[in-house]
Write a sequence for this structure.
């Protein structure tokens, strides 16, 4: 089953409106592979979503970086899935490790968020990944399986889910996972989906890698069988994001 290469740009809590406009115009001018080769989604902070949605080329899509766990209402400071749908924002990133670690989002809470967002018609980039301590103690697979299980227990239809494997030790550190390390976890995650969800979901779900992806390391990572794309942080704010998008060509010619 074909898994279209997926490249997400997570802009995190960065940018002024001037800087955001500049990034968008760089992307708009980029020569990119067609949509059947690569799906591109960029994720600005909430306040810039309308601006980016209006100015970004139509073959690229936008994602929010979070949304509330259930229907909106008296939840000060939150943004609901319904609001994103109302603004025609198609995607949302959920369970990013920065939110898990800094804001205390548990596996269950992330699972609930994924289920609610999907129920409202959003597509979800769901993030999993182990810390350095967990990797060094040999519990990487247990950690990412438990994170994925909390999602799988709440989600029936995986059609609108992209799973992002983002080892915490590789995020913003310049310490990218080796292609072999990424491939190993991606293959294990696919096996987990096969055993615990279905063979069909395992074959069709995109598992993307995030953590210090750059223009320099993307091609080798993209060449791995079970790496179906990237979730890019720092480099997605720079023109090299275009080179990362182009690494989808590696897959096409594989
Ligand atoms: O957290 C990430 C994407 O969600 C990765 O961030 P960096 O690419 O800056 O390491």
């Amino acid at each position: 089953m074909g898994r279209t290469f997926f490249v997400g740009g997570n802009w995190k809590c960065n940018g002024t409106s001037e800087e955001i406009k500049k990034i968008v115009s760089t992307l708009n001018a980029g020569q990119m592979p067609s949509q059947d080769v690569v799906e591109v989604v960029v994720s600005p902070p909430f306040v810039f979503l309308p601006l980016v949605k209006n100015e970004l080329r139509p073959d690229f899509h936008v994602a929010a970086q979070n949304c509330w766990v259930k229907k909106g209402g008296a939840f000060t400071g939150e943004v609901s899935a319904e609001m994103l749908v109302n603004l025609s924002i198609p995607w949302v990133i959920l369970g990013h490790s920065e939110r898990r670690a800094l804001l205390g989002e548990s596996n269950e809470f992330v699972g609930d968020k994924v289920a609610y967002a999907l129920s409202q018609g959003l597509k979800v980039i769901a993030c999993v990944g182990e810390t350095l301590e967990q990797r060094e103690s040999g519990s990487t697979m247990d950690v990412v399986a438990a994170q994925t299980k909390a999602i799988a227990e709440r989600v029936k239809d995986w059609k609108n889910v992209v799973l992002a494997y983002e080892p915490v030790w590789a995020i913003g550190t310049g310490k990218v996972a080796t292609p072999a390390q990424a491939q190993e976890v991606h293959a294990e995650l696919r096996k987990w989906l096969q055993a615990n969800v279905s063979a069909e979901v395992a074959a069709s779900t995109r598992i993307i890698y995030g953590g210090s992806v750059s223009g320099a390391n993307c091609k080798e990572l993209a060449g791995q069988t079970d790496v179906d794309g990237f979730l890019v942080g720092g480099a997605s704010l720079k023109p090299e994001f275009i080179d990362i998008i182009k690494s989808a060509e590696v897959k096409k010619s594989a």
In short: Residues 10, 96, 166, 171-172, 210-213, 231-235 surround 1,3-dihydroxyacetonephosphate (CB under 6 Å).
